[in-house]
From TrEMBL:
<feature type="transmembrane region" description="Helical">
    <location>
        <begin position="83"/>
        <end position="102"/>
    </location>
</feature>
<feature type="transmembrane region" description="Helical">
    <location>
        <begin position="215"/>
        <end position="239"/>
    </location>
</feature>
<feature type="transmembrane region" description="Helical">
    <location>
        <begin position="108"/>
        <end position="127"/>
    </location>
</feature>
<feature type="transmembrane region" description="Helical">
    <location>
        <begin position="132"/>
        <end position="149"/>
    </location>
</feature>
<feature type="transmembrane region" description="Helical">
    <location>
        <begin position="174"/>
        <end position="194"/>
    </location>
</feature>
<protein>
    <submittedName>
        <fullName>Uncharacterized membrane protein</fullName>
    </submittedName>
</protein>
<feature type="domain" description="Heparan-alpha-glucosaminide N-acetyltransferase catalytic">
    <location>
        <begin position="10"/>
        <end position="232"/>
    </location>
</feature>
<dbReference type="InterPro" id="IPR012429">
    <property type="entry name" value="HGSNAT_cat"/>
</dbReference>
<keyword id="KW-0472">Membrane</keyword>
<dbReference type="Pfam" id="PF07786">
    <property type="entry name" value="HGSNAT_cat"/>
</dbReference>
<keyword id="KW-1133">Transmembrane helix</keyword>
<keyword id="KW-0812">Transmembrane</keyword>
<feature type="transmembrane region" description="Helical">
    <location>
        <begin position="50"/>
        <end position="71"/>
    </location>
</feature>
Length: 326
């Protein structure tokens, strides 16, 4: 492939779509951070509805990568522009790996969104001008293969980025070749079909007016830079707030009281008396430093004695007759 000086084709609606996607990504990461520091009870990393939201946002991003490859290089590879952007993406990916390794050494990001964009951009270039049947066949294969084949070999971190593992590796973000490169190919296929059908000229004339479309288009044009800086900014605000407010303590206490209340009422005690009993129990757990025993279920003989004494004490609060002399 040779260098071309052909201008890049740009669509306002694509920039707007990127803007919407980067806002959705920032919102998701904000919720993930709030969940991690226990400001909210939802487990954003594992709850099925949140996983579906994350995958939807990722699918949009990968589809837009395919669109961008065709719009930028469909008339000929603009190598200088490609390599300049590609190096920027790679450096951003390396920065994320280093930063997450420092912050989360057990679950650091070794092949996340930017790592995938760097690799998929290189692979995708091979399909921007080939016969259209080729990316269609490869896309179907890449998306379908994980449903039919997996191997424990790919459980290893060194190969897990391929995506054919049987157990997901511990990492805060992993964008595997299978199936996500297939989504990039879908973006390439769709954009090539649009360009071949003559819709390009019509789409190019769509330029929504107003502040919101202009803002979204601006965010879309700078989506890569925004992706790099938004998470450090969010963490820079949330981490100090968590250190001061300690939301994990309040959430832990609420979980204890809710579970205790439910168990107490199930035993036939009135709700009002259960509130008193559980407040007493919470105070006892804090005073005797029994949180590890409560949360892990690993109770020493000494801790069991404290729990039994605490139970008797709190029971006597709601049933004073238990303290009456025999």
């Amino acid at each position: 492939m040779t260098e071309t000086t052909a201008p890049r084709q740009r669509f306002a609606i694509v920039d707007i779509a990127r803007g919407v996607a980067i806002i959705a990504m920032m919102a998701y990461h904000l919720c993930w951070d709030l969940s991690y520091f226990r400001f909210i009870a939802a487990d954003v990393g594992y709850d099925p509805q949140w996983v579906m939201i994350a995958r939807t946002i990722l699918a949009v991003f990968m589809f837009l990568v395919g669109i961008g490859l065709v719009l930028g290089h469909g008339n000929g590879i603009r190598w200088r522009s490609f390599w300049r952007r590609w190096v920027f993406v790679v450096l951003g990916a390396l920065a994320i790996t280093v930063a997450t390794y420092i912050a989360f050494p057990q679950t650091f990001v070794y092949f996340g969104v930017l790592h995938a964009i760097a690799l998929f951009s290189l692979l995708g270039l091979a399909f921007v001008r080939t016969p259209l049947w080729l990316p269609i066949v490869v896309a179907v294969a890449v998306i379908a293969l994980p449903f039919f084949y997996s191997d424990p070999l790919f459980n290893e971190k060194a190969l897990s980025w391929i995506g054919l593992w049987q157990e997901p590796p511990p990492t805060n973000d992993l964008v595997m070749v299978f199936p996500w490169f297939g989504v990039v190919l879908l973006g390439i296929i769709a954009t090539r079909r649009v360009r071949a059908s003559g819709w390009s000229a019509r789409l190019a004339t769509i330029a929504p007016k107003g502040r919101l479309p202009r803002l979204l288009a601006f965010l879309g044009r700078w989506s890569l830079l925004i992706y790099l800086v938004h998470q450090p900014l969010l963490l820079g605000l949330i981490y100090p707030a968590a250190s001061v407010m300690q939301p994990q303590v309040a959430l832990r206490d609420n979980d204890f009281l809710r579970t205790c209340q439910s168990t107490c009422e199930a035993g036939g005690t009135s709700p009002a008396m259960c509130v008193t009993y559980c407040q007493c129990g919470l105070q006892g757990v804090d005073t005797n430093n029994l949180w590890n025993a409560i949360t892990t279920g690993m109770v020493t003989a000494e801790e069991q004695a404290l729990l039994d004494a605490q139970n008797r004490q709190c029971s006597a609060v709601i049933y004073p007759e238990l303290n009456a002399p025999q």
